[in-house]
Design a protein that fits this description.
The structure holds two protein chains of two kinds. Chain A is built from nine helices and 15 strands. Chain A is an alpha/beta fold. Chain A folds into two domains: 215 residues, 3-Layer(aba) Sandwich (Rossmann fold), CATH 3.40.50.300; 53 residues, OB fold (Dihydrolipoamide Acetyltransferase, E2P). In chain A, a hairpin with a 2-residue loop joins strand 13 and strand 14. In chain A, helix 3 packs antiparallel against helix 4. The C terminus of chain A is likely disordered. By secondary structure, chain B is mainly α. In chain B, 77% of the residues lie in helices and 0% in strands. Chain B is built from twelve helices and no strands. The radius of gyration of chain B is 20 Å and the shape is globular. The model of chain B has no long low-confidence stretch (mean pLDDT 89). Classes of the chains: A alpha/beta, B mainly alpha. At the A-B interface, strand 7 and helix 4 of A face helix 7 of B.
Chain lengths: 294, 230
């Protein structure tokens, strides 16, 4: 069990606030951490890693990481961390980056095999693509067989295809090693696919704590579909009015009434839902599906 | 002229280079932990330490030399201690020159190293800690190999600056041939005694050596910046 009971003043986007958390995380769990920027997500990860100070207590099982002023230094906590910037050691090859953590070359080979890095093990980080670099960072983080793995938006700089395959690899490693994992993510699909628990931080506190289904599925009651989107433009067309709305990556047109048009303007966040109709599903041609990802 | 060339005494040059070599080695050992600490700390003592380290850049060498003379003389507690326990005198000999030069050249070693460490990707250093490695391993296995140009600058500039010092050396060492009479002091004496021919040759050699040292540093930097590597 990872026990966290901490307070720490934070310089957030809206001035000073307090990070005040009291929570427990089951060992072996995969937790997604979400929330607007400046809500304290990265600070929480850095406090868990021991890279930043806080008041209170943190313990993992029977190991006390933070105990009223006594803080175990980062390199003694057995925590693995993935940074947004990969943070590989540029003067070492892929294999040397892994072996820096521990001399267990069997584990290094196993990890490189699981992530397809084996043919690249002699290369230096600057000779790798972003996705390959983050794979190396992932393997390096697992080399210490960490009790806790912290992922700070590890996939945000990658294209959607690379994202998907790294998501699979992170999950595979999580299952193979049973590592307790906390991942900062803003992508609902990523959270839904990977996590079994979602924590949403707001102004330093936990605003929502639940399963991805409870937190992410927004349809209620008789609504069959419900999406959140942003109005891009409102266009009068003859006698009707059309709102152009961005829902995720998709742009749609929706007919609205004159009265509705009067209350809305471009930039408004809206919820689009519909009831009582039977949606038809059409399987997409796989080759066409990835057209936007490439 | 040819007579002067064949009779030229290289002892002051050898002494200058010996002094510079010893000082560079000692300063590297002292400055490495200091520069690392200064680059990593958030302590309030940092600006004070930085100011003290940089003092020799702005102080006249005579001021530094004067204080060194006071601090190292046999009448000072430190000088007396060394005299009674080790029978070592700290002024007007090579040991005194080394101690004084270490103070004088300290900023030229600390500042490039500190700048190199400070420019490193913070997350890379944090990744080393997260790899279970402490500050010492992080310093030697991750930080140092990634500041090679700064490291080379620090070593060469410190060496060159020690070769070029004059005031401090004169105050603390005097001009004892083979012991404290380094090249810069020798040139000063030649000018004093109006031996301009020798002064020309000595000065010419100093200019040529200094230029070659600096050229090496800048060539190396240029290659690094163009990504050719060495």
């Amino acid at each position: 069990m990872l026990r966290i009971a901490i307070t720490q003043p934070l310089h957030g986007s809206q001035g000073m606030m307090h990070l005040a958390l009291d929570l427990e995380i089951e060992e072996g769990a995969f937790v997604a951490l979400s929330g607007v920027s400046g809500s304290g997500k990265t600070t929480l990860l850095r406090i868990l890693a021991g890279l930043e100070e806080a008041k209170g207590e943190i313990s993992m099982g029977d190991a006390h990481w933070l105990d009223h002023g006594k803080s175990l230094p980062p390199h003694k906590r057995g925590v693995g961390m993935l940074f947004q910037s990969y943070a590989l050691f540029p003067h070492m090859s892929v294999e040397e980056n892994l072996l820096y953590v521990s001399a267990d070359s069997a584990l290094a080979t196993q990890l490189m095999e699981m992530t397809g890095l084996l043919p690249l093990k002699e290369r230096k980080p600057q000779q790798l693509s972003g996705g390959q670099q983050q794979r190396v960072a992932l393997c390096r983080a697992m080399m210490g067989r960490p009790r806790l793995l912290l992922l700070d938006e590890p996939l945000s700089a990658l294209d959607p295809k690379m994202r998907a395959s790294l998501q699979q690899e992170i999950l595979a490693l999580h299952r193979a090693f049973g590592t307790t994992t906390i991942m900062v993510s803003h992508e609902p699909s990523e959270i839904y696919r990977m996590a079994e628990r979602v924590l949403v931080l707001a102004e330093g506190r936990i605003a929502v704590d639940g399963s991805p289904k409870e937190v992410l599925l927004r349809t209620t009651g008789s609504q069959k579909f419900s999406f959140e989107g942003e109005i891009l433009e409102i266009l009068p067309v003859d006698v009707i009015v059309v709102a152009v709305i961005a829902i995720g990556q998709q742009i749609v047109e929706i007919v609205i009434s004159m009265e509705e048009a009067a209350t809305l303007e471009a930039g408004d966040r809206v919820s689009i839902s519909t009831k009582a109709f039977a949606p038809s599903l059409l399987k997409l041609n796989p080759s066409a599906e990835g057209a936007f990802d490439a | 002229m040819s007579e002067i060339l064949t009779n030229i005494n290289f002892a002051p040059f050898l002494l200058s280079f010996k002094l510079a070599g010893v000082v560079t080695l000692i300063l590297f050992t002292i400055s490495l932990p200091l520069a690392w600490y200064l680059s990593q700390t958030r302590s309030r003592a940092k600006p004070y330490l930085e100011a003290i380290t940089a003092l020799p850049i702005v102080l006249p060498p005579s001021v530094l030399g004067f204080y060194m003379l006071i601090a190292l003389s046999q009448h000072s507690p430190l000088g007396a201690f060394f005299k009674t326990h080790f029978d070592i005198s700290l002024v007007f000999n090579f040991t005194g020159l080394v101690i004084a030069s270490c103070f004088y050249s300290l900023p030229f070693m600390v500042q490039p190293l500190q700048g190199g460490f400070a420019s490193l990707d913070r997350q890379m250093l944090e990744a080393s800690y997260m790899s279970g490695r402490g500050p010492l391993q992080t310093l030697f296995r991750v930080a140092l190999p990634n500041i090679r140009p700064a490291l080379l600058s620090a070593l060469i500039i410190t060496f060159a600056h020690t070769v070029g010092e004059f005031g401090v050396v004169l105050m603390v060492g005097g001009s004892i041939p083979g012991e404290t009479k380094v090249a810069s002091v020798a040139i000063y004496e030649m000018v004093e005694t109006m031996d301009y021919a020798s002064a020309h040759i000595y000065s010419g050699i100093m200019v040529a050596v200094s230029f070659l040292v600096l050229l090496t540093v800048y060539l190396f930097h240029g290659r690094q910046q163009r990504g050719i590597g060495v």
